[in-house]
Structure formats: structure tokens, C-alpha cells
Amino acid sequence: MTPSPAVLFTVGKGFDMTEKLDWKWIGIGVVTMIVLNFAAALVLGLVLSPQLRGVTSPEQITLTSGQMWLALFVNVVSFLIGGFIVGVKSVGRTIIEPGLSALAAVLIVLVVSRQLSLGNLFVGGLIPFAAGVLGGWLGEQRQGGARIS
Q1: Where do the domains of the chain lie?
Q2: What does pTM read for this prediction?
């Protein structure tokens, strides 16, 4: 007989849903992800320099669909790597902490760029949150056993 999902999530080591978040690692994750995104932007700037030459506003940038996919890929990978780092190093709820770090990093960038809106936060934070959670899960796997949280 297979136990119900409720039992699976309440019984067993690491399944305690009331475990506290480690805010130190969320903060470290935010800084890590902002730095990694800055590095990703520099790499993209080098790769896409012909399209960016002479551009003074984002509206003037014209990219091919392949270049847009490249930009998306590089940004997602930066959040994935950031999540992995937090997942490997943190001892708290390592699967959710990197997702929260990614969301906070997006929030900070939106505030600094004066682009903050609920829509921008939702659309701009959804993929980084998912990439951070996936990176945290991979980091936890690397640590030796994922916790569902």
C-alpha cells in the first residue's frame, strides 16, 4: 500500500515544512546572483557588441530571435549557477532559499532601474525563481540528498 502524499511530506528526515529559512544564505544568494547576472551581461555585451554599438536606449536594440534566446539562456544559467552555489553551501531549506534569492535579486534590479511593477516582477521573477530553485535542488543533490521544502 502506497502512503498518501500528505504522509510523504510530513514523515521523514528533511521533510519538516516548518524548518526556518536561513536569511544569511538568502542574502548571500542575492549578492551572488546579482554578481553572476552582471558577469552574464558583460559577456552578452561582448557577444552582441555589433548590435549595441551606438545604442543610447533599450528601444534602439534590435536582436534576432537567436540572440534573444542566447540572452535568455545566459541569464537563466546565471540564476541556476547562483542557486547551485547556495544549495551546496547552505544548511537550511536549500531548495527554496535560492529561489527567494533570485526573486529578491530581480526585485532589486527592477527598483534600481526604475522598472518596478507587479507585472514586471511577476514576469521577470518567475523564470529566475524557477532557475534558482532548480539550482538549489541540484546543489542539494550534490550535497548528498535533497530535502523537499
Answers
A1: 25-44+64-143
A2: 0.77
Spell out the alpha helix ranges (H) of the chain: 5-8, 23-47, 49-52, 65-89, 97-112, 118-143
Contact 115, 46 (CB under 8 A): no
CA–CA dist 135, 132 (Å, integer): 5
Q: What separation in angstroms does the CA of 53 have from each of 27, 56, 58, 92?
A: 35, 9, 12, 45
Q: Which residues of 52-78 are buried (b: 16+ CB within 10 A; e: fewer)?
A: eeeeeeeeeeeeeeeeeebbeebbbeb
Residue range 111-135, pLDDT digits in tens:
998 988 998 888 889 999 999 999 9
Distance (Å) of CA 70 to CA 44, 74, 80? 8, 6, 15
Per-residue cell: 36:
553572476
The predicted-structure confidence for 23-78, as pLDDT tens digits, reads as follows: 899 999 999 999 999 999 999 989 888 878 888 887 788 888 998 899 999 999 99
